[in-house]
Each structure stands twice: as C-alpha cells, then as structure tokens.
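Comment on this:
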Amino acid sequence: MAQIWTNFIKNGWCFLDNGIENYRWIEATKANIRNKFRQKEYKDSDFRSGSTWFAGINFLDNEIGGDVDGISFSSALWSQISGKFGVGIKYWDTAQVSICWKGYPRKDRSESEKAFKYRLKKYSSHVDGLIPIGSSRKRFAKEFHAFILGIPIINNRVDSAPLMVWEGSHKIFRNMFRKVYAGLSETEISNLDVTEIYQKYRRKVFSTCPVRKVFSHNNQPYILDRHLLHGIESWSVPIGDPLLPHRDKLFCINPMSGRIVVYFRPAYKNPLDWITQN
C-alpha cells in the first residue's frame, strides 16, 4: 500500500488494488448506463467531437456513498482512498460517464481549427477544476476536488482512446497555484483569470514532463492527483474499418460499443485545501 502512494506522490497518479466488490459494482454500473441510454436520458450537449465522445457529466445514478442501484461501492477501494485522504472530502459526487467511440476525435462544427489541432497533438490536455468561461475560454478555478478516481468499465485497451498523463506535472501546477492564489479567499480565487500563467506553465510541462499512456487490465481503477495535466488520445481506425456513423444517423446508440470510464471527483470540505494540501 505504501508503494502505491509513493508512486502517486512522485508521478501524480497510480493504479489502486481491485476487488470482487468492484466487479459487482461495475456490472451494476453497466446496467445503469444501458438503461439510461435506452430511455434516452442524456443531453445532446454531452455528445462532442463529432459525436465520437460522450462527456457524460454527472450522468451516473449513484448515491452519495457511491452505490449504484443498491450495489455497494467497493469497500476495499474506498478504504485505500480514505486511508490517504482521511475525512477531508465530502460525499461522492455524481460521477461522470466518459464514453469514446472508434474514430475519436472528429472536429465539431463549433470547434476552431486551433482547438482541434490541440486535441489531436496534445490530447486536449487540461487540469481539472480550471473551467474555460465564455467565448474567449478564459480559465477560472471553479471546482475544488480532492482527486480524480477513474474506474474503467469496458473496452479499455491501449488503442481505444486511452488516458494520457504528464507525470510530475502536478508538482509544477501545485507550485503555480500556491503562488498565484496566496492569501486569497475562495471567492477571490474563483474570480481570478489565470489563463496566461496557466498556459505558460502548461508549456513548461510539455517541455519537461514525460507523457504516459494509461490503460487498465481487468478494470483496475486508477487515481490522479487533482493538479495533474491529462487528456485523451485518439482512437484511430484501421484501414478498411469503417468509421462510426454520425449519431444523428444512428437508429440506436450503443454505449457498450465504446470505451467507458467512470470518473469521481469528490470535493474538499474546505475548498482552500485544493491549494494547500500536498
């Protein structure tokens, strides 16, 4: 267990131990996702990148303890996390259900060429919590979560739009946030435009930190430091393999044909811990 968190502190991410409870939870989660798609309980705005990515913000029907449809969240997994983070976090948030399909990404009509090239070359990398606001996409700290927990659900392979992380980038951004936000209140932090300095430090990360592909065998969960730069690699299509049709032309959307990862981002009880905690 100590080695797991040593890797987390050094690299900004690590795999967590799996358990039989986690597999039961995953099966319940699959059923919940299938049912919600069958009932068309989704927002059109969650289909992005030419409908090759379903962002699925707050999509999973989980309880505040992480349970799904009466199936308990893995106590073994929660024990590992609480052993590291203690009682400093709130209840589980309503999880994101991130689904990519073969051919990700396509260019959205509303997406600029510059933004699309960034998605292709740098995997649309970002630090969670810094939210782009307005047409100018200025960045403001609006979400103060303790970590990012990824639970692979289905089709997580090396070629199927895997997670990309810049190892060690969490240390660079943590130092940046502590300098920029020193002495500020939560409200002042949320209203401070950090776009330019964020982009400056991101360039530093690109030039100094190794990028690594993260994909999971046997649905093994992983946890990311809250300040780690990360993104999604493309899911290329082999020659002769047809692209997924546009969603508007589909008779039925099959979420299970895509790569699915469920993400939890529980918030700190004290939002300023987002800056101060190591």
